[in-house]
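Pipeline run #58 for the internal structure catalog. This entry was flagged by the ingest filter as a single-chain record with no existing model, so it goes straight to prediction. Upstream metadata was stripped on purpose; only the residue string is passed forward. Reviewer on rotation: M.T. Logging verbosity set to normal.
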Amino acid sequence: MEFKQVITERETVRKFDGKKPSEEQLKSVLEAGRIAPTAANCQPQRVYVLESEDALKKMDEAHPCRYNASTVLMVCADKSVALDLNGASSYEVDASIVATHMLLSAYNEGVDSVWLGVFEPEKVQKIFEVPKNILPVGVIDLGFRTEDYEGNPMHSKKNSMETMITRM
């Protein structure tokens, strides 16, 4: 698939049929996260792949928006290895770049997704017993949309270039 097509057509899906992506599709998505650029190439990303019934139940406790996805990626970053400049850490930006790479790779592989960025990181950390230096930044549901999923009517609504850009 052409890159322009991937970034134009990829959309958030909030109704999954419960089927798992193939191991090949999942490996491609995870590889996209592994090779994503990070500040000073510190590579603080840590991705937890939640697939077991137990792990998915825990995610349902942590966040109510799994939408019947069969696979969930918990995107975290190890703050102790992220770039730190005078107390400002790159861990959130790094993990966000990684998540974006994985979302686009998923679409390119024919896998639907949704990025859940609004959640309680401390709650997720506690439920999954994640070490204190590994901070959850985002959650990505992966799977395949149901046949009756109609999409989000707001998907094609975009700001104009004039609204978005300020030249100085």
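catalog note: The chain has a mean pLDDT of 96.
catalog note: The two ends are 35 Å apart (CA to CA).
status: ready for reviewer M.T.
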